[in-house]
Design a protein that fits this description.
Elements (H helix, E strand, L loop, with lengths): L25 H16 L2 H7 L2 H13 L8 H12 L4 H15 L7 H7 L2 H16 L1 E3 L5 E3 L7 H4 L25
Antiparallel strand pairs: 1-2
């Protein structure tokens, strides 16, 4: 016996729903909205100086994490920025903008002590959260839920050069038999 409108048997599963939309996805729209809210909270000079607000975010992230983050981190930076801003009210978004402004004023070689001195306790807590998200690739929400942003590109793998994310190739077959040599 077959379905009346098709040639497939009645017991066959229905055709999968296909998304034929050429427009941006939900995540892209959310990331764009989050980025727009950050830009609106930034001082005019800071937003104009970097051209793209995520570049300022990457510079601030580099200061906080101690690992240089270049333009190759743009997409991950946008995703992390959107994750950090989601669920924040206007005051929370403004606080992220103040954190960015304060850290942008520091030199690229600023010490951890200089960073701590430039921030209030609440901004320091946000800076620590920022570093935690970059290093773990996940964010803990206010309700205790943990959202994974990007496990494979978390900075922990750059900080711990002798290891790699599970299921990621580390070299040619048999590479694990040779002792680790730093810097390779």
């Amino acid at each position: 016996m077959s379905d009346e409108n098709t040639d497939r048997p009645a017991s066959a599963p229905a055709d999968p729903i296909k998304n034929t939309s050429a427009g941006p996805g939900r995540r892209q729209v959310m990331a764009g909205m989050a980025a727009a809210s950050v830009v609106s909270a930034l001082p005019v000079g800071a937003a104009a100086a970097v051209g793209n607000p995520v570049f300022a975010f990457l510079r601030v992230s580099s200061l906080v994490t101690g690992i240089p983050l270049d333009k190759s981190y743009t997409q991950l930076g946008e995703t992390i920025l959107a994750a950090l801003l989601s669920g924040e009210d206007n005051d929370g978004i403004a606080e992220w903008a103040v954190l960015t402004e304060r850290l942008e004023a520091l030199s690229d070689e600023a010490s951890g002590e200089a960073i701590e001195q430039a921030l209030t306790p609440s901004l320091l807590a946000k800076a620590r959260k920022l570093a935690r998200v970059w290093y773990t690739g996940q964010i803990e929400r206010a309700d205790g839920r943990i959202d994974v942003i990007d496990y494979d590109d978390a900075l922990v793998w750059r900080a711990c050069a002798w290891t790699k994310p599970p299921a990621t190739c580390g070299g040619p077959f048999g590479y694990w038999q040779k002792p680790y040599k730093g810097g390779t």
